[in-house]
Amino acid sequence: MTTHTARGRLSLTGSLFIGYVLLLTVALAAVGTLWAVHLDRATDRQYSERVLSVARSVAVMPEVADGLRSSEPSVVLDPIADHVSAATGADFVVIASPDGIRHTHPDKDLIGRTVSTPPGPAAEGVEWSGVEEGTQGRTVRAKIPVFSGGGSVNGGDARGEVVGYVSLGILTSSAATEARESVPAILGMVAVVLVLGVCGAWVLSRQVRTKTYGLEPADITALLESREALLYAVREGVLAVDRADRLVLANPPVRDMLGLPDDAEGRHLDELGLSERVRDIVSGDDPGDDRLLLAGNRILVANRMPVRVRGEDAGAVVTLRDRTELDRLTGELDGARTVTRGLRAQTHEFANRVHTVAGLLELGAYDEARSYLADLSATHTRTSTDISEHVCDPGVAALTIAKSAQASEMGVDLRLSPMTSVPALDRKVRSDALLVLGNLVDNALDAVASTPHGWVELMVRLHTADSGLPHDLLEIRVTDSGQGVADDVAEEIFRLGFTTKASRDGGTRGLGLALVKQVCESREGSVEMEAPDADEGAVFTACLPVPAAVVPS
């Protein structure tokens, strides 16, 4: 997908690049400023410690104490002060009496005069350091008392009285000059880091462009909105899993189909309470197209499509279609086809019988023809009467007659149990009953089709709540004389896809009993295979709870 940035507007990568550079510039400016301020303060602290240390060293010199007590202090002390100043780089070394009379000074004309700044605590035997304005200018200075017996306050060995003090200082301009000399190094380092940061910002913006496939924010927003609209608009369920089988996407239809919790996304398939078949299809353990599965009272068709990104497995997308109504309609259509086949068989049989009667009449066997017609009429009347007496619901009666004709065509004896009693049913109940009845009878007919003298017995009975049940119960029991079902597969026959018959038509098999189980369980009923008697192959019993309100009185 190719996008074009509107004229006059920066692209996403351009905006990110400029933003990175501006942010880096501001950060480096702040860091450089803090670095310079810290260096300036460190320099001031260094100079304060320096003048304090040198002044203490001068104050404890015996020559200084002796000079201050001599008759001409300046003659003794001035050479010492000049030597110390030259050796330490101090801008001035002033040795004065407690009352502030200078005995030394860089400006010899000021010797013997009163100091420009008061002695302060030094005249009282207390050390002091700080910044003051003097004759040399603004200086960082220290004032240290000189004791007659030697020693110092800092060393804790001061002896005697205060005979003077030493004032030593360095101009603040000298300290500022040293700090300014470090500025080019700071600016150079900031510039190098800025250049490296700009290069890194450019590389990062290129990577962002690659990751977003060159899409601008508006394009990404449009794609996201389109995806959300598509996922929420389709009726099919769509879910996606990553390579670790964690759910990363599920639209509302699939949440409803599978009963997923609200916090399903991000969780592993094993944590979602899905059936084993659903997990097998979603994880890819059960590959193939149009896989059928049962979820609650739904029949779903699933298709799984693996997803590969840059040649690597990135998970899969699974689509689910609800085929419940389609299969119900298909079941009703199969019932109609059964009726049609039964009518076709009856038509064929009727034509044969008419031809038989015509032949008898042609031969002049009138008595035999009359007897043959009487037997046919009695048999037809007996079958119709038997069904109509026990089955009052027209749908169930029609399906029973059709299955009877189908069984007759297959050479199977379909019997109606004398315990059968079916009143008129509600449309919904009738639809479920026809699906269960049709599938169970079809399975029984298939089971005995190849058995000589095979038979199938059908019993449909509505048990009312008057018999002690909590609600009305429609029981459908189908017994056949086939080979039965092996014990090792008795628990599997109701599983979707399981079949003991070869697929002769290439279609999907193993769905009938699964549908029967689904219909029964959707009504909170049951279906089970009972242990047969010696002359029976299999007995299937389905129970459908029927609310009393839906049974016509």
Automatic annotation (TrEMBL):
Region (Disordered): 106-127
Keywords, alphabetical: ATP-binding, Cell membrane, Kinase, Membrane, Nucleotide-binding, Phosphoprotein, Transferase, Transmembrane, Transmembrane helix, Two-component regulatory system
Transmembrane segments: 17-37, 183-204
Chemical reaction(s) catalysed: ATP + protein L-histidine = ADP + protein N-phospho-L-histidine
Protein name as catalogued: histidine kinase
Subcellular location: Cell membrane
Nuclease found in the keyword field: no
EC number(s) from the headed UniProt entry: 2.7.13.3
Principal localisation: membrane
Membrane topology qualifier: Multi-pass membrane protein
Top enzyme category: transferase
One Gene Ontology MF term: protein histidine kinase activity
Entry superkingdom: Bacteria
Species of provenance: Nocardiopsis codii
Domain Histidine kinase: 436-548
Secretion signal, residue range per the UniProt entry: none
Key word Cell membrane present: yes
